[in-house]
């Protein structure tokens, strides 16, 4: 029988820790490849493919928010880094850094959600570790996940292949996650109207990953679409011209941003894909995305131009403004 | 030019974060497989072997202590979980959860140390992520690492194969790390006399991993040798009889433990191996260990007996006492 709150003894390697691992982690994450008695877990990957690995830390606050929680976020964030690289996600490892005093029921809900998200994304959690830190030295719960997947040997996605004339695409509305988390921190009345877009992007990314003319994909998480645009500009040395009218932003997200003084282009999405593609491939990618529920709002939002590296937003009233690189932090602990 | 302290803006995905990653992480961890512009990194493993994966979180306090720091600890802790599984460590991923206000020079020293430890252990850091959490919601720096290695297909190490008559071995003195960290937290006069044993155990573990008669290896980190003994007892259903006179404990460790009321058998070592082997293999393992500087104090410390699962310590004065399973936390944030 577990305590009502996590204590330091749940992290010491002894009986309490084994109970916590058995009754919370192993129970919700059970799969044939998970054996919590091992120091290292064997795994197998399909032959003829290239293995890829990615890792991500999660410090979102609050731990639970409309549309998700730190558990589903950790799975989807890691799965999505594999998917936008053209890789099929296969397995995950999980680190939990738990703050003394965290409600056991909250931890249980989050690990259960993490397990559901992993099953939904088709990945097995094969190894894990838990640490408990003293009260006042944590944020309730921090997670770190590493994901392993495989991609086709001829996959050549990368920012370096981007060239002038290419089209910038996004698979759905931007900023939903950032706004949902921000509202969940406060007692705003409109909270109910908004949910995070936290979801796997596997079904969006993998069917188009091998398409000739697709140059690059990335999920616009920390720093949002504007930050992905800046990363592309910096790596390619080219100019991105984005069209404000074309970037899908939900009315509810737009009005919260107006009220709070945030720019939605800098806010995280956790279930979207930004892609850059040659013009002849862009239409096929949009058609593929729009055939899915999560891709109904997919749009071409800009073009790659020659000229000085940078990001310009063509405004709805016909002007243009520089989308600056993010310097100050608009929203700490959002992912 | 980096700030003197880490700020929240170093975690937001924008310019400051890119600078932090380039000037601290990418600089110290540079290797041909590390490309910080990728969402997921391709990797290759030697053919004909079984890939294995392990993961570990690190929350030690203070961040730097005699004999190591959280950076070298993270590399060696993860490398050692692979090595005791009979696997050659190949690559690592790294998560850093940094508390706002951490001195940049301290972070730099730790990442530099992590890089040195990785090179010494022959592993490449191929992917990473950094998050910055607000002041008062972290412990300076938490790290989480995942390690991937390969082992021989016929490697069958595991607690299940342990049987009565087997011998329990340890590769060196126990409790050094636990005592070094505990003293580093306080201003004890004798601090200088003790250092952590933090080190890779690859040279100890791998040469014996394929030996017939070796059943199982584990590094006695959290909870120490007593906790490994309990894990063996629980998994095998057998009794471990350990000999107090045979367990190597440094005089300095013993006297600090006496003074502070700790039992050295429950204190973490971070560069030792506990092994269980058939009697005919035990001598060869000890000889292999003792041929190395780090294995000079290797010893046979007990035997596996039939009877009720548990751990008994035969005391130096000829009595015996139960080594209980750890319940209370003797030393939080020790690894």
Mind explaining what this structure looks like?
- The structure is a homodimer of 335-residue chains.
- The first copy, chain A, is α+β, with helices and mostly antiparallel strands and 335 residues long.
- Chain A folds into two domains: 37-151, 60s Ribosomal Protein L30, Chain: A (2-Layer Sandwich); 159-322, Alpha-Beta Complex (Phosphoribosyl-aminoimidazole Synthetase, Chain A, domain 2), CATH 3.90.650.10.
- Helix content of chain A is 28%, strand content 24%.
- The first copy, chain A, has helices at residues 15-29, 70-83, 104-121, 176-184, 202-205, 224-236, 251-260, 279-290, and strands at 41-42, 50-58, 64-65, 68-69, 87-99, 124-133, 141-151, 167-170, 214-218, 239-243, 274-277, 299-305, 310-314, 320-322.
- In chain A, the strands form three sheets. Chain A has a seven-stranded mixed sheet with strand order 9-11-8-12-10-13-14.
- In chain A, a hairpin with a 5-residue loop joins strand 13 and strand 14 (320-322).
- In chain A, helix 2 (70-83) runs parallel beside helix 3.
- Chain A is globular and about 65 Å long.
- The first copy, chain A, starts with 14 loop residues before the first helix and ends in a 13-residue tail after the last strand.
- Strand 1 (41-42) of chain A pairs antiparallel with strand 2 of chain B, so a sheet runs across the interface.
């Amino acid at each position: 029988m577990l305590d009502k709150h996590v204590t330091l003894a749940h992290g010491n390697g002894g009986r309490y820790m084994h109970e916590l691992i058995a009754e919370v982690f192993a129970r919700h994450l059970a799969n044939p490849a998970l054996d919590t008695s091992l120091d290292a877990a064997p795994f197998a990957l399909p032959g003829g493919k290239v293995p890829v690995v990615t890792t991500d830390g999660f410090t979102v606050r609050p731990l639970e928010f409309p549309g998700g929680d730190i558990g589903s976020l950790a799975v989807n964030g890691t799965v999505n880094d594999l998917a936008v690289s053209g890789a099929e996600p296969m397995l995950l490892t999980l680190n939990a850094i738990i703050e003394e005093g965290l409600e056991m029921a909250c931890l249980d809900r989050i690990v259960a959600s993490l397990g559901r998200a992993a099953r939904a994304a088709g990945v097995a959690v094969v190894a894990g570790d838990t640490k408990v830190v003293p009260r006042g030295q944590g944020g309730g719960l921090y997670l770190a996940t590493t994901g392993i997947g495989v991609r086709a040997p001829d996959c050549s996605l990368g920012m370096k292949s981007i060239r002038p004339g290419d089209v910038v695409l996004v698979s759905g509305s931007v900023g939903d996650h950032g706004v949902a988390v921000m509202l969940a921190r406060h007692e705003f009345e409109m909270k109910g109207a908004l949910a995070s877009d936290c979801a796997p992007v596997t079904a969006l990314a993998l069917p188009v990953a091998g398409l000739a003319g697709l140059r690059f994909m990335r999920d616009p998480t920390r720093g949002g679409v504007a930050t992905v645009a800046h990363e592309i500009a910096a790596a390619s040395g080219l100019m991105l011209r984005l069209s404000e009218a074309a970037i899908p932003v939900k009315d509810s997200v737009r009005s919260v941003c107006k009220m709070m003084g945030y720019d939605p282009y800098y806010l995280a999405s956790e279930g979207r894909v930004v892609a850059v593609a040659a013009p002849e491939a862009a239409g096929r990618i949009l058609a593929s995305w729009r055939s899915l529920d999560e891709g109904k709002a997919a749009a071409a939002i800009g073009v790659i131009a020659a000229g000085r590296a940078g990001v310009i937003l063509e405004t709805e009233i016909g002007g243009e403004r520089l989308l600056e690189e993010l310097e100050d932090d608009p929203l700490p602990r959002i992912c």
